[in-house]
Amino acid sequence: MAMRPLVAAAFAVLALSLGACQDGSTGGVPLRALAPVPQKTLALMAHKGMSQNDPILIRAYKREAEMEVWKRGTNGQYALLKTYPICRWSGQLGPKTKQGDRQAPEGFYTVTPGQMNPNSAYYLSFDTGYPNAYDRANGRTGNYIMVHGTCSSSGCFAMTDESMGEIYALARDSFAGGQRAFQFQSYPFRMTPTNVAKFRNDPNAPFWKNLKEGSDYFEALREEPRVGVCGSKYVFGGADAAAGSCTPKVEPMVAEKRDRDNREIAELIAKGTPATRLVYDDGSQNPVFRGQQTPADTLTFASLGKPEPELPYNPKDYAQHKLGEVSRPESLAAGEREIEVDAKGRPVMMAAAPIPTKAAAANLERRGSSPAAKPEPIVAEPANLSPAKPARVMVADADGDPAAYKKVLGNLFSNGTPATPAADAATVPVVAGAQPAKLELKPDAKASHAAAAKAAPVKSAHVATDKDKVATDDKPKPASDVKAASKSTQKSAAATAGPASPKTTGSTTPKN
């Protein structure tokens, strides 16, 4: 009974507009904010030995586009209740740093009853609590970063209306049960040794390593970590961390997990796990909303050749959810790109195969092997006297591919010089065969007979260089130029020219 005034006061504050991604308010408390938890979820609680009013904790993962709701049992430990697919998040992996950067925040946040917004223009919502003390200590700006309904995001976590209604009801009931605030943990990805090894050279890696300390505490103990800020870093632990200690006690189970993960990370790196980073046009969404589990353009090094993991939710259920107007669908179509980077986070170029040296060829001969046969020269089409320019094979690089990650990250990896695909490309010269020049005879009969009598030798075809212009005029010659030649002249020209050069088909430049 003593909690009723507190709950009434909390819902009075809920009527205030909080602005979910510039959210609006319709006034009053709509019925959707009072809707009960679905019976199916209540049955799941009963199956797992949970109570409707037990405290909750929420964890979100950007790359996996999943949000978990955990419930605390009578033993003080949290257990996973349910996982919800995220319909939309925007920006890139990494923390939010300033107002308007479209980044969804990463870190540890606190949500109170006053941050719940039943009057959201995006169905229902709650404020994540960004910026927190850590964000402010690092000079980060922005506010009103929400978890809300409607599949549209400009820095928030957007769920479907059905999912948001259920999450909102779970939080509402936990507050009614006496929980004063719940913790909202936001991660770039699941903090597994595999992910830490892969993204070790990302510019955000030191920050993510700090987040993993809090994740390790929760996963080892299944208890909510107390969070403090020391300088510009998070500090996690028990009561001593909450009291402001910069060196809180590390529980044995937490230390054991960290050591185990560090050994696995070192082994993965030693085995050659490539350092990569992920790039998006503008965030992503869970694949269940795209009608497929693994789009072809989101395959990564870690998933090659491995079976798809079993999802903690039924894709068919969420395929029926109404998404409304999804924000920036064209950026979703591009998918995520995983780029290999060096120790400084710069893209690694794929080196061409080494060219065998004379010493290597001699070594092959001594072993009784012969070096690989040289490829047949590519002969230009005999339609023109000048063969085409050398074909260029474009190397996948940062500067030459503005449609990839550079258009998102700007000049982060730029070497300071403008992008010139022609200069950055590897050139494969086109070797022209001894192409005979065609005799063009004037319709003058005397000149034709004189040319036939002399039968002058034909000059070799001119081989074009990079400075030559490629001929673009392929119009046929006048019929009079062909008919004027006598049969004797044709025979003489054919004898001089020798056998015709073979034609080649297809392009010498592979498609990217």
From TrEMBL:
Residue ranges of the region described as Disordered: 362-385, 442-512
Biased composition (Polar residues): 502-512
Pfam families cross-referenced by the UniProt entry: YkuD
InterPro entries: LD_TPept_cat_dom, Transpep_catalytic_dom
Signal listed as a keyword: yes
Catalytic machinery residues: H148, C156
Record field: transmembrane: none
Pathway involvement of the protein, from the record: Cell wall biogenesis; peptidoglycan biosynthesis
Cited SUPFAM superfamilies: L,D-transpeptidase catalytic domain-like
Flavoprotein among keywords: no
Domain of life of the native organism: Bacteria
Protein family per UniProt: Belongs to the YkuD family.
Protein name: Murein L,D-transpeptidase YafK
